[in-house]
Design a protein that fits this description.
Strands 1-3-2-4-6-5 form a six-stranded mixed sheet, sandwiched between helices. The longest helix is centred in the middle third of the chain and has 18 residues. The protein is of the alpha/beta class. The protein contains nine helices and six strands; from the N terminus they run αββααβαβααββααα. The chain has a single domain, classed as 3-Layer(aba) Sandwich (Uracil-DNA Glycosylase, subunit E), CATH 3.40.470.10.
């Protein structure tokens, strides 16, 4: 079975089975989107109003900024995979609860195991803390984490500030763009380490 079909089936299966309470409140699920063969997976927090309407992650103003940063490093959205820790929009864009995150966690893990990326990029503290609960985004942003102890097939993780946090804060925007610009060098470093193993 091709990865694209496998992803489609696991998304449909998890949507049917999920116990996430947000399912009953959202317009529709927002499945991950992009290349099933992606080297990089970006994980955000939760769908917003635009995503809930369109059924595609990062399509609002945060998504436009993400596209801009991808363009700056000469990467197409179609070459990466973008998803969220929860697949349904929380009411009024509130933070997803621990129960809601936990209800979608196995689903997210399945996505990541199917794609098997070299690098997982966390967009914001909620995404990072779902995997590394003791880290602070203010200290971890822009720094590569190499960790073989997670239950995932991936070993390399890069926490970044969420694009939404930088939309109205010039300093944060500059920091995020600077951190983002390191991704190509980080990928080269990962490829060198993998080739040595």
């Amino acid at each position: 079975m091709k990865k694209q079909e496998a992803l489609h089936q696991l998304n449909e299966r998890n949507h049917t089975r999920t116990t996430c309470g947000l399912k009953m409140l959202a317009t529709q699920p927002v499945f991950g989107a992009g290349s099933p063969n992606a080297t990089i997976v970006f994980i955000g927090e939760a769908p917003g109003k635009t995503e809930d309407k369109l059924g595609v992650p990062f399509m609002g103003s945060s998504g436009k900024f993400l596209d801009e940063m991808l363009h700056d490093i000469k990467v197409s959205r179609s070459d990466v995979y973008i998803t969220n820790i929860v697949k349904y929009r929380p009411p009024e864009n509130r933070d997803p609860s621990t129960d809601e995150k936990n209800a979608c966690r196995a689903w997210l893990n399945e996505e990541l195991d199917c794609i098997h990326p070299q690098l997982i990029v966390f967009l914001g503290r909620h995404a990072m803390n779902s995997f590394f609960p003791d880290r602070k985004i203010s200290e971890a942003h822009g720094k590569l984490i190499h960790d073989k102890t997670t239950s995932l097939s991936a070993e390399y993780f890069l926490p970044l500030y969420h694009p939404a946090s930088a939309l109205y804060n010039g300093g944060m925007r500059d920091t995020l763009k600077k951190d983002f610009s390191r991704i190509p060098k980080i990928l080269k470093k990962i490829e060198q380490e993998i080739s040595r193993d």
